[in-house]
Amino acid sequence: MRLSIVTTLYRSEMSLREFHQRISVAAAPLGDYEIVYVNDGSPDDSLRVVLDLFHEDRHVRVIDLSRNFGHHKAMMTGLAHARGDFVFLIDSDLEEDPELLPVFADALRAADADVVYGVQHRRRGHLVERVSGWLFFRIFNALSETSIPANVLTVRLMTRRYVSALIAHRERETTIAGLWAITGFRQIAYPVVKHVKSPTTYSFAHKVDVLVDAITSFSHRPLILIFYLGVVIGCVASLAAVYLVIRRLFFGIALPGWPSLIVSVWMLGGLMLISIGIIGVYLSRVFIETKQRPYTIVGDIHEHATEPARVEDSRERGAVLR
Predict the structure, then answer these.
(1) The listed CATH number (3.20.20.450, 3.40.50.720, 3.30.1050.10, 3.90.550.10) that belongs to domain 3-219+294-321
(2) I need a labelling partner for 188 at 20 to 30 A (CA). Which of 105, 200, 235, 253 fits?
(3) What percent of the chain is helix, strand and coil (3-state, nearest 5)?
(4) Using an 8 Å Cβ cutoff, are 182 and 151 in contact?
(5) What pTM, to 2 d.p., does this model score?
C-alpha cells in the first residue's frame, strides 16, 4: 500500500460525499491508496453515508469507534490503522482542500522531508476567535519546552517512519499538536487557506480546557512557577514584617490592622487555591495515566478482503487501542 488517507467523522454527513469524490480524484494519480474513515461516535448519519461509500468503493475502510472519544484520539486511532508508506491526514469538513494532497506530495519530495503540514495564511473567524487562537499558541509556547507552530492545521502528509514514531506515544490524554512537534524528524510548513464552512465547535471554554491539557501534558514549568511565587511572597512578607517592626519600635507608628489583614488573607488565600489547583491538575493527569485505560475502543472495522491491514501491535476487530 503506497498511500493512506485518514480522516475522522463527526457531524460530517453533509460534506462526506463531496469530500470522498474530491480526495479520490486527488489520490488516483499517486498510485495505490486507501481512505480510512474513523467514525468518532458521530450523532448524525455520517456512518450510514460512509458505509454506502464503503460498498461503492474498494479503496474505503471504516473504523467505527464504540462512542465519541474526541477528535485527537480518533485521529491517532486512524493513524494506527493506516497501512500506507505515506499517510495524508485531513479533516472531512472541506475546510482544508483535498486537492492539497498532490501539492504536499511534491513539497515532501522536493524537501526530502518526513512531514509537510499546513499552516493558515491568516487565522479564520471573528476577532474573539482570532485573538483566542493567538493567545493559545503564545501561552503554550511560553510555558512549554516544546514549541508548536502558530495556526497549525490538521492537514499533513507524513512518511511511514514518522507515523510509526508518532503512534508510539501512549498518553491517555492526547494533545496531538504537541505530539506532532515532539516526534521530531524533518518537518516543513506549507501555507494554506482554511475555508469557513461552519461555526467552530471549539468554544472559548473548550479552548481553555485544551490549553490547560496541553500545558500540563508537555511542561512542568507551572509547578516551577509556583515554587518561585512562594519564594517571592515569602521574601516580600518578611520585608514587610521587618518594616512594620521598625516603624513600631523606633517611630511608634502602628499600621491599622483590619483592612491590611483582610487584603493579605484574601490575596494569600487566592494564591494558595490557585497553586493547589495547578498541583491538582498534574495529580489528576498522573492518576489518569497510571490507570492505563485505552484511549479509544474500536467497535467494528469495515474493510474489503485484500491484503491484511498493517496495524501497530497487531490489533484486531473489536480490539482495544492502547
Answers:
(1) 3.90.550.10
(2) 200
(3) 50, 15, 35
(4) no
(5) 0.74
